[in-house]
Amino acid sequence: MTPRLNRRALLGAGVLASVAACTSSPAASPAAPPPSSGASAGGSAPPFDPQDWESVRAQFALDPKYAQFAAFILAPAPAMVREAVQKHRDALDRDPHYLPDGGDPDEAIRASAARHLGTEPSGIALTDSTTMGLGLLYSGLRLREGQDVLTTEHDFLATHEGLRLLARRTGAEVRRVRLYDDPARASAGRIVTAIREGLRDRTRIVAITWVHSSTGVRLPVREIADMLADVNRSRDEHDRALLCVDGVHGFGAMADGVAELGCDFLVSGTHKWLFGPRGTGIVWGRAWDALDPVIPAFSQGSFEAWRTGEPPARTDARLATPGGYKAFEHRWAMPAAFGFQEVIGLDRIQRRTQELATRLKAGLADLPHVTLATPADPALSAGLVCVSVDGMQPGEAMQRLRAGMIDTSLTPYDPPLLRFGTSIVTTPEQVDQAVEAVKKLG
User: Fold this and answer.
1) 81 vs 60: CA distance, rounded Å
2) N or C, which end of the chain has less CB nearby within 10 Å?
């Protein structure tokens, strides 16, 4: 992404200033030395200079012995998020009537998420995870007789199983297309063409994943959206193909907002690359009228409809947000996670993530016993780097690397691959350390 001063940046200016004021101290000035170790899990936040990557890393309580290439899985939270969780937990323990942000904390969360995505708060539903968001979406979208669903062979269980259950309930056909044979040689043109050729006249849902957790391939979502826009020009509104995106491995790693992506729905947890509170997520949509809520909401509109006996006139993001009592100390800490990224800069985070991934891919590509599955082109990848090691099972490689203080993960697919994730908690030196460790696996 190129730096931009757009509506999203202008809307967020006030929040950036307030977050910076809350997280800075005189010791965090550019002239001050960066902290040498991470924040303790229970201690106060260390000085924070968002322009200093060492200071950014110091906000995390990760074990400094390990080079962290799996931090995106059950992601750690930076100090300001941990402190927000603790503040709300303590307040709830003191007073069961406690409500932050003037008594309407969900609106503050929507506002912070909207700034991050460059959109309006009214389009954002709050969930507990990517899987919950996809389940709500694919359970709620209405299909008319004869309409079908298109997805890909490369999507994760949450998409495939959600669509299988949709087909079981509705009888709609769900088809899969293959976007690439060798992921390292994937091309935007072939990906878009494969989806275009997989469409039918009554395809209502196109379900894709922004960054494939199986290979690290990042789909050209904007190009797919543009292709579908051309197709939809000749369709009736109720037959328009809706582009639904599992965005979890792009959200927080890439700087694209919903205007850049051009999709109809974007689903993501906020605890992975955003490093937000665990058990939180969002669904952004611009076609809420196309689905029915799955779980009753606790919104004002939902309660008013229940009291009057009149069903809501139409679905919106608030009605699609599941009601019930949550781990509210985690949900209410979500603005701190968005604010943490905003003060660092979304474009800077993307550049850092991709620069480290490019460095890692280049180093691994030089090893004769390693086969890269992730494209070298940053335009088709993000922070995930997936490889296979000749003559070694990925699980064994992962264990040997961890014994050498390199923390990685496995892809949950068949066949599995060894997977690295570069992010704001990794360094160029750790990338080089990882390459040397993989070299010794040969």
Assistant:
1) 10
2) C
